[in-house]
Amino acid sequence: MPTTVPAASNAAENFTSREPSRHTKLGIHNIDLFERTCVEGDPMPTDYVFVPKGDVYITRHCKSQTKNSKRNLYIVYDNRGKRSLGIRVPADTYLNVVEQAAETADSRATAVKHRDEKYLSQARSLLRAQFPDMPASVTEKVLQHAYMKGSGRVGRKRTVKDERKIRLAVEAHIRHAHTEYKDMLEAGVDRQTARDRVWDSVQDLRDKWGGSDNKLKARSTERGVKKARATGLKSAAATRSRREVLVNLRRRT
């Protein structure tokens, strides 16, 4: 549990009187009137506590309540200024937020559970629509693996469109459960080579589960991706070629 660390009066005064600026000594942009940056070795302001990263609710509400009270919030980095460690906030604010967190824990857990169930239900519907011939047992396995909360897997990535997310999740399942992909990795084959070797098998089973309409759509998407990659490679090659010509001309002159 964070504790208040008293600081020498002069050091604390200097620390808390730093003016906010766009560029701190850590190279971090900061234009918030009540937000400061510091490193872990800096003295702790009087009546402040350190709150480590980890609990999103605690961190978010400590930040908002500190700023709303018009008191300084300190973002704490390691002594090299590279890695964020947590925040420093007034001790009374921290204790208030901890109390609120305890009071709302059950209701927040219920809300999260309902939200996750809704998310999985939507994903299940999309899977069945995109892969109508996939066995029901496989559908559940794909959901359990790719959509596991906190896994960082494709099913949880908000930046990937739903249709592509579903296809990638199915391909990942096929690769791991229906090919020799894992055996290849264990035998020392590098990841990309192993993926290339099993790709035809992955594609065939994916198309079988997807039906004729989805098969054509998937193949069209793959052609688009390959075309984009080829265009990018040609552009890069042309840039290198122009650069080489300029270098040779300079050498001649």
TrEMBL record:
Q: Which residues form the DUF2293 domain?
A: 127-210
- InterPro entries, alphabetized: DUF2293
Q: How is this protein named in the record? A: DUF2293 domain-containing protein
Give the source species: Elaphomyces granulatus
**Bias (Polar residues):** 1-18
State the residue spans of region: Disordered: 1-21
